[in-house]
Specification:
The structure is a single chain. The chain is of the alpha/beta class and about 325 residues long. It is about 30% helix and about 25% strand. It is built from 8 helices and 15 strands. Strands 10-9-8-11-12-13-14-15 form an 8-stranded mixed sheet. A 5-stranded parallel sheet has the order 1-4-5-6-7, sandwiched between helices. Strand 2 and strand 3 form a beta hairpin. The longest helix is centred in the first third of the chain and has 17 residues.
Length: about 325
């Protein structure tokens, strides 16, 4: 049962991308979800109607821009416009998973920087603040000229591994050189060393050669990444760790994109468990036994309360959440 929050001017609304997570966040904050209808016209256009007053309220909208990313992004933009026209005091957008985050720079000539384009669209629609979780690239915060609270999933994942006893004799693995900072953050919570998988492709269309930098023999290896998409990197890395003498291999990530052959690859891999969060809602066909899910609701709920009370969010980066519950 939701414990009533004292500030009646705080309202939380959920759109269609991840309503179960939004409901949990509202419960942790201590408010009921606001009433909003999200429908479609006969030609597929999105229709949104806010069914209660938001005049003078601090509004938080929960919406991951996961697949179908364009529909979910458009829902969010239309909702923000509706809130602005309804005289909401502040419009705070909670994006557990930020779509288009991997297009954060020009890797080739004549490429767009779509993560910046999305930031521009959100700002221009009237957003006052962004609350994001484990952005693919930290510099995306700089694409906004409004406050961005960038939360970390590491405390939640760490709590799971501590509760399961995996932290004993563990080593945290970065699947590539770019993920070392993320691996180090998890390792600090677990009080574990880190190792790195060095991937090299000798030439085009030739299988990757993987070298392990660090000691993994006889260890429980925990691979960490911000997302698992097709699961190619994570499953190849798991096999390389087993070949190098690892006792057990776990994979963990904040965002379970799991597209294409991901589920089949994970099921056939030597991974003992794949620990993910509920930043993206997993359909039933992706909920295999090997995948364990922890909720980011305690983290986001705490952040919303701190922001609404003008208290610092930074303590949330340093604490392990004791209230984490496992959702299979």
């Amino acid at each position: 049962m939701t414990q009533q929050y004292f500030d009646q001017n705080l309202k939380i609304f959920a759109l269609n991308s991840n309503r179960p997570l939004a409901k949990k966040i509202a419960e942790h904050v201590g408010v009921e979800l606001g009433k909003v209808s999200v429908n479609r016209f006969s030609d597929g256009e999105i229709q949104i109607n806010i069914e209660e007053s938001v005049r003078g309220d601090n509004v938080y909208v929960i919406q991951s821009t996961s697949a179908p990313v364009n529909d979910n992004l458009m829902e969010l933009l239309i909702m923000v416009d509706a809130l602005r026209r309804a005289s909401a005091k502040t419009i705070n957008v909670v994006i557990p998973y930020y779509g288009y985050a991997r297009q954060d720079r020009k890797a080739r000539s004549r490429e767009p920087i779509t993560a910046k384009l999305v930031a521009n669209m959100l700002q221009n629609s009237g957003v006052d603040r962004i609350i994001a979780l484990d952005l693919h690239a930290a510099q995306i915060q700089g694409f906004f000229d409004i406050p961005v609270d960038h939360l970390m999933g590491a405390p939640l994942l760490a709590e799971y591994f501590i509760n399961q006893g995996v932290a004993d004799n563990a080593v945290v693995i970065s699947p590539d050189h770019g993920g070392v900072t993320r691996a180090r953050a998890l390792a600090e919570f677990l009080k574990s060393p880190i190792a790195i998988i060095d991937k090299r492709r000798p030439k085009a269309n030739v299988a990757q050669i993987m070298n392990i930098i660090g000691d993994v023999k006889g260890k429980k290896c925990i691979m960490i990444d911000d997302m698992i998409d097709t699961a190619g990197t994570i499953t190849l890395g798991a096999q390389a760790l087993i070949d190098a003498g690892a006792e057990e291999v776990y994979a963990s990530c904040t965002h379970a994109v799991l597209s294409g052959p991901a589920i089949e690859r994970l099921a056939k891999s030597p991974l003992k468990e794949v620990v993910v969060t509920d930043s993206i809602q997993l359909p039933a066909e992706k909920q295999i036994d090997k995948i364990k899910q922890v909720s980011v609701a305690p983290l986001i709920g705490a952040a919303i309360k701190r922001i609404n009370e003008n208290r610092p969010v930074s303590p949330l980066f340093k604490q392990v959440f004791q209230s984490v519950k496992l959702n299979k």
